[in-house]
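Intended use. Records like the one below are meant for learning the mapping from a protein sequence to its folded structure. Do not use them to infer anything beyond what is encoded.
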Amino acid sequence: MTRISEMDEAAGTTRTTGRTALVELDDVSKYYGNVRALEGVSLEVHAGEITCVLGDNGAGKSTLIKIIAGLHQHDAGTFRIDGEDVRPASPREALDRGIATVYQDLAVVPLMPVWRNFFLGSEPRKGRGPFKRLDVDLMRRTTHAELLRMGIDLRDVDQPIGTLSGGERQCVAIARAVHFGAKVIVLDEPTAALGVKQSGMVLKYVAAARDAGLGVVLITHNPHHAYLVGNRFVLLKRGAMTGSHTRDEITLDELTRQMAGGSELDDLRHELAGGAP
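Structure written out for the chain above:
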């Protein structure tokens, strides 16, 4: 795969040409019986870039996540990973292909220590036969080192992960995905339930994952958060794609306007100004 890129440091964007997308959806649709959950959606995810998917509740964001994560298979269109047509049959298959999904609820065990959650389901062991046991020291050291590499300096990785803030738990999940070899991270509304300071923390580590060369899919309903870190923007409404833009093609004001309803919002403003019922 050939990579040609130039970084505009002021805008925090990467313009790329001549390389294969890590993940590409082309005119993808998903139906549940007669219900259209997603129709004609296309997007690209490149290494070292963040693709933001924006939409309100019911826009189709969750269905899109499930297709990329391997939970559901698409009914029409093309799903490519590294240029190869694929149809992942499970989240494990998607993960084996380098796609890690971090859901909003994070799927952590609150009373377990940070290091145990970091390796949950992938614990290294040492010893042989009946003496085989968890390599706790290795997990502690690795967890602390990997978090530190992402700029997260936890005083004690033995503390229960439930004692961390929401932003810190999101950052641990991102660091875990990076450690286990993800090439693409899908983040499901990582800042939805967070305050301004914690949202800023999460966006900082999302940008760190991008700068480490990963492709990131950021699902959000907040255009301000998306515009702070995004390189590409895909807007969804009622399962259909209403816009697709690169950062240099759209301003924050226009992105916010389209997210808020665009012409529908203008019509509403006109009705309210005219005193229409």
